[in-house]
């Protein structure tokens, strides 16, 4: 597993600096448009082409409307002429028909855009989920990663839809502008340049607005994450009991209000700045529009255009102004989304090291011995190493235990042995070969790990166990054997729908299990995976002493020759292990069999006696 953090991690400050240095040139716009078209094309090319075709049809209808207005006005001014009434009605009908066609096209486009937007969103989600499930586990220790994930979820994912809309609006507005512009030129060529200049103020201010929007989003991500977290805490099922027991409701609510208040204050400030900028842009456009209309009046007075032509020109000017605005709004959307898209692209690149995990030769299907050879590991962002020079060995078929006090590094060492963290120094080897020589995905497929904080999936009991090996279709016989070996048969068979019962009250007919029953389900999940190496991280913490004893006593039989690493706090449980490693402060301080360690009279003997005495005292009390 290559650590995902590295040059691809960009902190918010760097991101803002990058945003400031972004060039907003035509060259950049064309790059963004190319990227966006590729994205939309890959998600739904049929719809995209259909939408563009409709845009062209709408543009033609719009240009036709200008000419029809001119014809209607000319017919009105010529009403006393012979056949003028028929000409008037014909042009009115054409105008009405074209107007209806434009509206119908608009409505159909709306529906198609919505669908295309969803297709784009789905393809983006697919990629984002690939990253979040594919990046190295250590990414989840990094606040940078979470900030980025949050930004991508809350912002970047909606941007491709905006880009889609922006592109289509731009295409349509461009086609319409050309159509209406051509109609306008046929009335008087002098009017066109003035109108194009009219759009410039909006373009200039919109560039600045997009930068403001991006800066705002980057700056607000940590506050938004905190707010979201506080919402989750106050609405979560697991947290509900503690919130009541500790009377935390008002306190948490206060925190939430403060976080929201901070965000709202910043949002109001941000929106004022955006509103001011867009007002400046629109006022500039309005001034240019007045100049254009003035020019038109002058052309009429000068006799260069007819009154009918001038009437049609006014309609065209209004249409063109709105098309130019749509065009620039499209450009703005693409610029605005550009920074987010780059952020998103950077995020998607985080999956590349994960893809490398699948490369390389397949790991062997078994081993003679697994060793962690003088491994060191420090969590990203931590100063102190969690594991500092630990060496352990597990020979095939052995049951090996790691014991030690809280925080001594047991779980971290287990995750290193499971190939989930790459040691900073030292190596995990199978028969002398560093596991990094093989595809890490294939190494992990040979290992079954039951974590201390295993996941309670809100799925059926069957799924909760069969999830241990999704590489093949569920095997009912294996499922039942694993359940039996983990001692979970009774709990599952007494559920209303047995194995089909959802293990969560979130779903109709669902049931929850007790902590110990859940733990047995998790153990069954580990047994179900046909792996030569099984890691059980405190699998007995929620079990009663008899169940714990049974679990360990039956372990060898259940494992049928597989190798097991067993982490526990209860020394009495592990006394029959082939070898016991005692960890303290990230190091292995002692190892041997129970008898050897007791004879050595070191830390193990001390902790064992302490626990035994506590147990005896408790029994006597
Ligand atoms: N995700 C993490 N990020 C940073 N530090 C961590 C993380 N997980 C554990 N640590 C630190 O690493 C050290 C070893 O933790 P580890 O979970 O491996 O200990 P452990 O022996 O399994 O403890 P326990 O018996 O409480 O489960 C501790 O000091 C802990 O604070």
Automatic annotation (TrEMBL):
Transmembrane segments: 47-76, 88-108, 167-184, 190-206, 279-301
Pfam families: ABC_tran
Residues of the ABC transmembrane type-1 domain: 49-328
InterPro entries assigned to the protein according to its UniProt record, in alphabetical order: AAA+_ATPase, ABC1_TM_dom, ABC1_TM_sf, ABC_transporter-like_ATP-bd, ABC_transporter-like_CS, P-loop_NTPase, Type_1_exporter
Start and end residues of each ABC transporter domain: 370-610
Positions in coiled-coil regions: none
Keyword Iron-sulfur: no
Assigned keywords, A-Z: ATP-binding, Membrane, Nucleotide-binding, Transmembrane, Transmembrane helix
Membrane topology, from the record: Multi-pass membrane protein
Membrane among keywords: yes
Entry's localization field: Cell membrane
GO molecular function, one term: ATP binding
Family matches, as PROSITE patterns: ABC_TM1F, ABC_TRANSPORTER_1, ABC_TRANSPORTER_2
Name used for this protein in its record: ABC transporter ATP-binding protein
Protein source organism: Occultella glacieicola
């Amino acid at each position: 597993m290559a650590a995902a953090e590295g040059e691809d991690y960009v902190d918010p400050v760097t991101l803002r600096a990058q945003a400031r240095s972004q060039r907003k040139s035509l060259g950049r716009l064309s790059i963004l448009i190319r990227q966006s078209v590729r994205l939309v094309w890959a998600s739904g090319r049929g719809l995209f082409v259909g939408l563009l075709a409709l845009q062209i049809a709408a543009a033609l209808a719009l240009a036709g409307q200008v000419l029809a207005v001119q014809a209607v006005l000319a017919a009105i001014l010529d009403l006393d002429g012979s056949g003028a009434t028929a000409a008037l009605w014909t042009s009115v009908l054409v105008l009405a028909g074209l107007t209806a066609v434009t509206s119908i096209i608009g409505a159909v486009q709306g529906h198609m855009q919505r669908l295309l937007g969803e297709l784009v969103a789905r393809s983006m989600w697919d990629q984002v989920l690939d990253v979040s499930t594919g990046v190295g586990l250590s990414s989840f220790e990094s606040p940078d990663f979470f900030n980025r994930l949050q930004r991508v979820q809350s912002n970047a994912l909606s941007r491709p839809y905006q880009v889609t809309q922006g592109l289509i609006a731009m295409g349509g507005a461009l086609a319409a502008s050309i159509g209406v512009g051509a109609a306008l030129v046929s009335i008087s060529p002098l009017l066109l340049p003035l109108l194009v200049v009219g759009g410039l103020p909006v373009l200039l201010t919109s560039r600045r607005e997009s930068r403001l929007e991006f800066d705002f989003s980057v700056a607000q991500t940590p506050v938004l994450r905190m707010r979201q977290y506080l919402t989750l805490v106050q609405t979560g099922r697991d947290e509900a009991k503690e919130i009541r027991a500790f009377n935390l409701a008002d306190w948490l609510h206060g925190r939430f209000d403060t976080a929201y208040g901070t965000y709202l204050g910043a949002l109001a400030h941000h929106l004022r700045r955006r509103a001011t900028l867009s007002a400046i842009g629109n006022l500039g456009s309005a001034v240019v529009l007045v100049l254009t209309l003035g020019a038109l009046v002058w052309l009429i007075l000068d006799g260069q255009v007819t009154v009918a032509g001038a009437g049609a020109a006014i309609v065209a000017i209004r249409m063109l102004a709105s098309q130019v605005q749509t065009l620039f709004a499209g450009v703005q959307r693409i610029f605005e989304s550009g920074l987010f898209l780059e952020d998103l692209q950077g995020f998607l690149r985080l999956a590349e090291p994960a893809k490398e995990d699948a490369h390389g030769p397949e790991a062997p299907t078994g081993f003679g011995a697994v060793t962690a050879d003088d491994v060191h590991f420090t969590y990203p962002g931590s100063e102190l190493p969690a594991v500092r020079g630990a060496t352990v060995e597990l020979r095939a078929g052995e049951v090996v235990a790691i014991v030690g006090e809280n925080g001594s590094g047991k779980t971290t060492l287990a995750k290193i042995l499971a190939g989930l963290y790459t040691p900073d120094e030292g190596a995990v080897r199978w028969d002398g070969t560093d596991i990094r020589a093989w595809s890490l995905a294939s190494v992990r497929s040979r290992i079954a790990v039951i974590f201390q904080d295993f996941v309670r999936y809100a799925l059926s009991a069957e799924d909760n166990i069969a999830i241990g090996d999704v590489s093949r279709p569920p095997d009912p016989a294996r499922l039942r054997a694993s359940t039996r070996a983990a001692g979970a048969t009774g709990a599952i068979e007494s559920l209303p729908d047995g194995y089909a019962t959802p293990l969560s009250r979130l779903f109709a007919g669902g049931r929850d299990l007790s902590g110990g029953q859940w733990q047995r389900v998790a153990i069954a999940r580990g047994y179900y995976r046909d792996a030569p190496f099984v890691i059980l991280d405190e699998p007995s913490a929620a079990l009663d002493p008899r169940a714990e004893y049974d679990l360990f006593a039956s372990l060898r039989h259940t494992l049928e020759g597989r190798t097991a690493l067993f982490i526990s706090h209860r020394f009495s449980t592990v006394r029959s292990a082939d070898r016991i490693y005692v960890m303290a402060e990230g190091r292995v301080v002692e190892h041997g069999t129970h008898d050897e360690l007791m004879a050595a009279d070191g830390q193990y003997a001390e902790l064992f006696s302490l626990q035994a005495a506590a147990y005896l005292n408790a029994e006597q009390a």
